[in-house]
């Protein structure tokens, strides 16, 4: 296929995004891998001593072409999945996995990078270049470059098997999520569910050629039921379906349960990860995972999480007791079940603070929130954000924007905000294109920002819960880290090269603004009347900010400890005890035990299909950093331009060019403290 007919092979493939389909994927990736290999052979075959210009630059250019094409394919596979695209994606991913595995074990390339680290040459490099070389040498080691031939092959085989298994895990979760729905013609069953959610369910029924209402396992639909439905059996039905996705406990047919069951995949993934770690001389996969992170030892991570759990648990137990007493008093519920928690929590919050998600939602139309967020960022970081006319869209839901400074384009991004069929759940930021200099020309970064909010219904715009608002700010924080970087060395530009347990700092930092009294009126407006958020409602929201914060913290610690402990279990001959591990963690830190049919681990994509294996603790670790960083704004002024400029120059602009602790101390003037996190969550440690 010629470059003229394959948009992924164009000089700027993003400019042709709307033309990409499944038939383009495998031919383009095959050709780009071949081009990269040709460039590699040419670079390694040259005479003379290697320099940055003769080694790194030409390889960065080859990789840039491949990365730009593959990022588009990955994004489409996540937001516009189809059988053809999935097949092309998996075939191409297999080739990429093999290629990058060989690249990481290429002894000649490793020796070439090692030569750049010589004392007489390092002095000529800037900090970003030095850090990139240091990171590359570490990654060669972690890729098995020093292994004997047989072990190298085994390591490569494991890497490729893991790539297939994690993709299969993600596919199973997507298919299980979208393979189930609840249908009813009886509107009386839906008492308590908000009108907008019922309208969306009626639309979903029409799309499936059914009468009445259809509720799915997409988050907006699922949450509408478990949070608001007075019908307890309905809450249980949808909770059970959600909690048993991709498992033998699901309500799908036996054939589908067998096809989508992630239990055997989890076992295989864990065994292979442990073998991979052992080949490199690590005691466990957890030990391998933290090698490039801020944390120094596995025990440090466990101690950090355990200490945080001990500080939060007494308060969480009180919160749980209050909820149980409320359910007993309100509806004579003797035993609070998992499908009751969200419902009674919402009712208790309404009673205590006179505020409900649905009332608040009316004041948070997506466009108002987005424009207010843009205005905040523009003031803090001296940029201008406006709709883009140069980025083509791949779906009608996608919006595109430019970021400029002093009338010069510095970055662009996509926002794809609504849940829909064939789209992966959750929210994330992905690198569409990085900031770098390619063939002497500066390339501006582009980000994919993806959420799964409720779509507009009829004349009613997309209305966000306050949780949705914080999600939007969170993902935009990731985007800012990627887009506002000043580093032009690809390996440490934006989020690249940032320690995984620090990468959540900018995203969690941005969430704090959603709770500020001076900011909330600027990101809210009633969708019908245009009236600002009433002061009494604003005050009640702020009073309820830390409602059940200790229970929420323990839930995240439960996930983190489960993930980390599971990946520390090097002594197990097999990993058939996944559920036992989770049960033990829950006994230690949780105040609420899910029912026995709950198979949470089978859809825990963060650790079995994403980048958070033995790293989910990063959310809490980085939350310590983000709370402490935001404390500087509380001390110096929420919109203090000097503080904003310092955060921009010390954190957002620097990417991974320095280690995360160095950058944090530059901003804060000291090492981080856990005290601001406990303060922000109003957790009073014993």
Would you kindly provide a written description of the structure presented here, covering whatever features stand out?
The strands form 3 sheets. The chain has a 5-stranded mixed β-sheet with strand order 3-4-5-9-6, sandwiched between helices. Strands 1-2 form a two-stranded antiparallel sheet. Strands 7-8 form a two-stranded antiparallel ribbon. α4 runs antiparallel to α6 (127-142), α9 (219-228) packs antiparallel against α10 (232-243) and α18 packs antiparallel against α19. The longest helix is centred in the middle third of the chain and has 34 residues, at 298-331. A hairpin with a 2-residue loop joins β4 (398-405) and β5. The chain contains 27 helices and 9 strands. It is globular and about 80 Å long. The protein starts with 21 loop residues before the first helix and ends in a 6-residue tail after the last helix. The model has no long low-confidence stretch (mean pLDDT 96). With 686 residues, the protein is of the alpha+beta class. Helices cover 55% and strands 7% of the residues. Among the domains are: 7-104 and 106-142, Glutathione S-transferase Yfyf (Class Pi), Chain A, domain 2, CATH 1.20.1050; 179-260, no CATH class; 366-545, Neurolysin, domain 3.
- Tell me the number of helical segments per DSSP (H or I, 4 or more residues long): 27
DSSP strand tally: 9
User: Any idea of the CATH class of the domain at 366-545?
Assistant: Mainly Alpha
Distance between the termini: 67 Å
Q: Give the CATH architecture of the domain at 366-545.
A: Orthogonal Bundle
Looking at the structure, the CATH topology of the domain at 366-545 is Neurolysin, domain 3
Class inferred from helices and paired strands: alpha+beta
Kindly report the average pLDDT value.
Answer: 96
Strand order of the largest sheet: 3-4-5-9-6
Major sheet size, sense and barrel closure: 5 strands, mixed
Given as residue ranges, the uncertain stretches (5+ residues, pLDDT < 50) are none
